[in-house]
Task: structure prediction
Amino acid sequence: MVDYKVTEISESMSFLEMMDVLNEQLVNAGEQPVAFDHDCREGICGMCSMYINGEAHGPDRGVTTCQLHMRMFKDGDTITIEPWRAGAFPVVKDLVVDRSSFDRIQQAGGYVSVNTSGNTQDANSIPISKHAADEAMDAATCIGCGACVATCKNSSAMLFVSAKVSQYALLPQGQVEAADRVLNMVKQMDEEGFGNCTNTGACEVECPKGISLENIARMNREYMKASLQG
Ligand code: SF4
Ligand code: FES
Result:
């Protein structure tokens, strides 16, 4: 851990803007800036992985680090910032971690095959209940940030994987590959070294998108069904 004193911070600044000010001060002083990840800065890309004062994405609820504001802290506060800590997310530098394990899980089954021959059925012609559509949409809001893993004492990726499985399991378009999807994604999750779920629920509390634990229950049902089919 390294101590830095940052000045000229307004309470309207986002946490990443505060980091920008810190890095500007460091560069002006001829020092190395602190490496951290970011892209969209509007809660969409899931890149800004920081563990702030012992909480993934900091003390606010339902926001990513880039949406966290300095008004959540008091003037003169000491803020502790760490990278995501999980064996499957190796630290690259400072606050930057390698989350390509999530990409490999997605590649193992997070897709549907679509007929592109020109005879593709219009998605709107397939009836889907409002309830299923809403639940699939809720699951699809997972941005793959990894806060669930970072906050879990087991470094479990079950909330992330279950969101990705659920967004298809709830829709007719996802049924064709459903069994392979859940088996392959869970297999990849295990191979990447993520821990198992012991139902503590910390992931749901820290998830910036409010992904529900119900998705984990659904994934377990899908997994059981696929195992019995196989
Ligand atoms: S489930 Fe939530 S915390 Fe986990 S990767 Fe998705 S958005 Fe981030
Ligand atoms: S920088 Fe994209 S979610 Fe924070």
Summary: The pocket of FE2/S2 (inorganic) cluster (ligand 2) is lined by residues 38-41, 43-48, 64-66 (CB under 6 Å). Helices lie at 15-28, 100-109, 130-140, 147-151, 158-169, 178-191, 202-206, 214-229.
